[in-house]
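Propose amino acids for all 755 sites.
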């Protein structure tokens, strides 16, 4: 109990005035949401009483002690406004410290303002940091005043013991409730993560089961955290904040999971099956509203989880939900993409008019910048959800078809870089006669799709509404849905388990092939025919199987419609080489120049080292590329190990290109007598060179790059590993101010974003 020594009446009047000032500033502190507990009445009592006591004691303090309190309060504010307010209070202190007979009421007002400044602190270095420092600073301030004045206080030990017992009972009750809530809270988090993971995989049944189980566990945790055992703890500063944050989180989290489970019950993906080549457009449209409701619930759930990351919640609970928050962010992104897809699906599926699409069938055993050589193609149409295959053909068919001259109008950088490969080298800048086999040379598929859309109507085709490309592994994945297909002359049917090796290699050994006619078209035709007369699984199953193909760049799409193209970009299906201008971009591509299927034996290793320095925009890069050729020099058909450029059998001639924001500086290999040529594509500098690799041999290129990049937000990189027969091994290392960091060492195909 604080007791002020009895003074003459005028002193008592000053104390009353100071106390009144303290009450006023205490109420002001409540307005800035000073909440030492999770209980409003306790907050009001603690804050007003604490501020009043500090102000009352401070009204008798020496000015130098008040100045010290102001300095700590201003430093804690971590804001320009706080420092300015502290400066004004400090000037007042300096002015009146030199004047005799300063008013006790004035000191009370200055101390009250200083205490309020502490309540505006934004310091959250650790849980309760501002509270601990503020309490400590004010406590030291009060002790200084006690030692330098004649103020006295005494403590009633019975009250201290009673207070201690109440606090002990409150803490014991809270600890017991937390102990009982720990297991269901942990289980609820784990089950919720499993539910979100199942939702990402499109397994709605499992997702509902896990989310329902998680909701029950969180309900149990919420019951313990809101039980009478925890009521007294709500009045304890800091502890009450922990209790309320945990209880509110578990309760709101449980409610969101329940609503999410109810929303999932409205989804019936079985209605979205492709049955006999037809999709139900009405069923697709009916899913738009339930999906919007689910996204709203997930956004609320994300808000609940974000609350777990505030400085008033203990680290253990923050960590418990941090991973789940990351999972939910991924699902929200997928949900947003699904919403866009549902909006555009009627247009893509021909609700208003028939849509025509071109599908390039590629094989990486004859490498191209996009991945592989297009030997075959398909034209299909979709009218009001009904899918039909209109035509199949070979690249040679398109070379011969159509009128003359054929003219490619763009994109300009594509035409400039690849024009001499049959696209603009005929009289008058028109296309040549042998061009379709090189159509996939560019690693930037949006440009390739535009060129195909431009060239196909001039090669006997019709106007296109979109272009897709899929390689051998994608065709093999389709066999999982189509079932086995029969290959004439082969005893064993092709399945998704054995098709890849057959299409990449065995067909060229088992069957006599004198030109570029292979069996990829035949297998794809049978697979599509079987799919279109049967049923596909629900879209989640199809997406899970084809998703890796998209991620690896084995299945790409282009649309002249900006909204559809944006959808392809959002889901990673656009095959774009372009990246943000503020980051470095890097890719190595190979284009087969031998005219054979020898890239089945190609093994590539790429090492990219980037050097940056603080306070500099200059960036240097070193690229080491090793191309190894394990092809034999005999024993296989010329179609595999031969070539059209006069080299001995087994040799592999290839065009290696380095795409980068940085420009070519020099080749650092002293034995390099190769001729490099330079161009640009999608804002990248492209450095290219022809290389001949002998059988069972290798060639290594070492190249220095250099240039300027915007490093204001640090160095970041977008890189690509191509979808090859044999996965490329790519290592990326950053040397920043002499410190080395390995950003990536992987054979994973696809695009990477590294920071």
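Proposal:
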């Amino acid at each position: 109990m604080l007791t002020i020594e009895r003074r003459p009446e005028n002193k008592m009047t000053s104390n009353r005035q100071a106390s009144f000032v303290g009450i006023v500033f205490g109420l002001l502190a409540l307005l800035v949401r000073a909440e030492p507990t999770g209980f409003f009445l306790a907050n009001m009592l603690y804050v007003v009483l604490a501020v009043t006591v500090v102000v009352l004691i401070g009204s008798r303090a020496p000015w130098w002690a008040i100045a010290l309190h102001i300095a700590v309060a201003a430093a804690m504010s971590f804001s320009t406004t706080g420092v300015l307010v502290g400066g004004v209070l400090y000037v007042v202190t300096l002015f009146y410290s030199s004047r005799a007979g300063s008013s006790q009421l004035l000191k009370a007002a200055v101390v009250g303002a200083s205490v309020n400044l502490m309540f505006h602190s934004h310091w959250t270095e650790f849980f309760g940091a501002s509270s601990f420092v503020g309490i400590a600073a004010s406590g030291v301030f009060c002790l200084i005043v006690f030692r330098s004045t004649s103020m006295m206080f005494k403590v009633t030990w019975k009250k201290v013991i009673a207070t201690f017992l109440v606090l002990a009972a409150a803490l014991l009750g809270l600890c017991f409730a937390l102990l009982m809530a720990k297991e269901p809270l942990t289980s609820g988090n784990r089950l919720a993560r499993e539910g979100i993971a199942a939702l990402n995989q499109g397994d709605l049944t499992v997702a509902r089961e896990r989310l329902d189980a998680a909701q029950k566990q969180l309900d149990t945790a919420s019951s313990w955290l809101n039980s009478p055992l925890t009521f007294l703890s709500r009045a304890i500063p800091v502890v009450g904040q922990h209790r309320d944050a945990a209880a509110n989180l578990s309760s709101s989290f449980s409610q969101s999971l329940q609503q999410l489970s109810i929303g999932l019950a409205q989804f019936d993906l079985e209605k979205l099956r492709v049955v006999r080549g037809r999709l139900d457009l009405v069923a697709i449209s009916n899913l738009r509203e339930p999906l919007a409701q689910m996204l709203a619930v997930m956004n609320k759930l994300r808000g609940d989880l974000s609350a777990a990351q505030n400085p008033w919640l203990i680290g253990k609970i923050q960590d418990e939900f941090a991973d789940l928050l990351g999972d939910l962010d991924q699902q929200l992104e997928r949900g947003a993409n699904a919403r866009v897809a549902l909006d555009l699906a009627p247009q893509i599926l021909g609700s208003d008019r028939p849509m025509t699409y071109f599908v390039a069938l590629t094989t990486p055993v004859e490498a191209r910048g996009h991945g592989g050589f297009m030997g075959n193609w398909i034209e299909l149409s979709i009218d009001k959800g009904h899918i039909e295959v209109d035509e199949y053909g070979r690249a040679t068919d398109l070379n011969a078809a159509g009128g003359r001259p054929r003219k490619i109008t763009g994109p300009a950088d594509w035409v400039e870089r690849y024009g001499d490969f049959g696209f603009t080298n005929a009289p008058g800048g028109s296309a040549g006669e042998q061009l379709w086999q090189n159509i996939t040379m560019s690693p930037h598929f949006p440009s390739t799709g535009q060129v195909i859309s431009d060239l196909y109507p001039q090669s006997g085709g019709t106007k296109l509404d979109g272009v897709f490309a899929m390689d051998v592994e994608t065709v093999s994945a389709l066999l999982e849905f189509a079932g086995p297909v029969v290959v004439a002359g082969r005893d064993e049917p092709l399945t998704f388990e054995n098709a890849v090796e057959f299409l990449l290699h065995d067909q060229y050994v088992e069957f006599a092939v004198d030109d570029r006619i292979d069996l990829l078209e035949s297998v794809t035709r049978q697979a599509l025919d079987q799919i279109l007369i049967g049923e596909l699984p629900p879209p989640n199953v199809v997406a899970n199987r084809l998703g890796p193909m998209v991620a690896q760049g084995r299945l790409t799409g282009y649309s002249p419609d900006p909204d559809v193209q944006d959808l392809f970009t959002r889901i990673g299906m656009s095959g774009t080489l372009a990246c943000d201008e503020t980051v470095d971009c890097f890719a190595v591509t190979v284009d087969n120049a031998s005219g054979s299927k020898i890239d089945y034996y190609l093994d590539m290793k790429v090492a990219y080292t980037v050097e940056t320095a603080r306070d500099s925009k200059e960036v240097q890069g070193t690229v080491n590329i090793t191309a190894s050729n394990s092809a034999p020099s005999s024993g296989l058909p010329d179609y595999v190990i031969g070539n059209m450029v006069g080299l001995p059998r087994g040799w592999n001639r290839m065009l290696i290109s380095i795409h980068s924001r940085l420009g070519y500086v020099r080749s650092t290999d002293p034995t390099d007598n190769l001729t490099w040529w330079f161009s640009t594509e999608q804002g990248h500098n492209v450095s290219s060179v022809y290389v001949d690799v002998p059988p069972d041999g290798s060639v290594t290129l070492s190249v220095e790059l250099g240039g300027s990049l915007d490093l204001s937000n640090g160095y970041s990189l977008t890189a690509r590993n191509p979808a090859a027969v044999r996965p490329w091994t790519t290592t990326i290392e950053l040397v920043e101010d002499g410190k080395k960091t390995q950003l990536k060492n992987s054979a994973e195909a696809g695009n990477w974003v590294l920071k």
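Residues 9-154 form one domain. Residues 2 and 153 are 5 Å apart (CA to CA).
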